[in-house]
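Write out the 3D structure for:
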Amino acid sequence: MKQVIDSSSERGVESFIMGMPHRGRLNVLANVCRKPLEHLFSQFEALTGRDEGSGDVKYHLGCSTVRRNHATNKNIHLAVVANPSHLEAVNPVVQGKTYAEQFYRGDRDGKKVMSMLLHGDAAFSGQGVVYETFHLSDLPSYSTMGTIHIVCNNQIGFTTDPRHSRSSPYCTDVARVVNAPIFHVNADDPEAVMYVCKVAAAWRNEFSKDVVIDLVSYRRHGHNEVDEPRFTQPLMYKRIGETKPLLEKYTNKLVSDGTVTEEEVQLEKTKYDGVLKKALAEVKSTVVYNAIWLDSPWTGFFAGKDPLKLPKTGVSETILMEIGKKCSTPPEDFVCHKALLRTLKDRAKMIENRIADWAIGEYFAFGSLLMEDVHVRLSGQDVERGTFRLFLN
């Protein structure tokens, strides 16, 4: 993820909207977003936030942060969207958030704001929302100009082997429906992974299309703290047990290449261990707020407002009559269907008689917002034919 962010930042991206399942989330918050470690540790101490809200379990929480990217020496915005236990439910939420930010920034080409989605192999091939989100990826009213998908491919779903969980050879085959390039890479080869991440960032920047990175790897331990994977996959976990951890293998390679010394490696481990212990020691004196876990904090949203008082939002009858006239009169250069002309004529009579049905009420709501320069987005098949018809000049 860090390599994708660095490479994309070099190409001008300033804001990254990320979605992911709960596995690995604390790692991402700590090492990618640089979330203060004492905030993470506070979740294990069950400290209560001093502001309103009930929060959520630590593996579902998100964040929003601005930090300096050392690769480009630029400030970048990172947001990890909160996600429930439904592993892929966050996908359309991330795309909607990205689309909205691109719209308000005027980023039509997606060069400033981009989305990243992390997936597990079983959920990527098994949950329908993945397929649905892919099919939104190139639609004019929904495209975020390319998403980088990273699949953590453990080659197992809880206890289910791939041959029992999908009919296609690869868990990433669902991405072929939009002809997205798919890079299968050995996750135990970090230099190959970094290269693929650079290529994926370059692809997204050049073609504004989705791209998938399939990190082919394994899950060293069970699905959770009490799961024993040797009960169901004894041969697989015999091989995993005989395999050295990646950190150990890559450390040995760097030492044998003369890139670093054993002493330098040990110094880095000791240094980071000290950082963790210091943060843990400071937890009890840390003041926590639920707001620090929001992926879209609205600073000052309630400032100067009484949260228990409903403000007046009504408009004058003159404005309603103006909106009513607009919504019952087609534009001069528009050839309108005869049946619709009858509907508009009936609507004009209702407005003239100061009568409003639910459809006209919606026109009043949308129209008054537009007259106050508030952006209104309507989408979906109901908008195109029948349920909503706006002729607001």
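The two ends are 45 Å apart (CA to CA).
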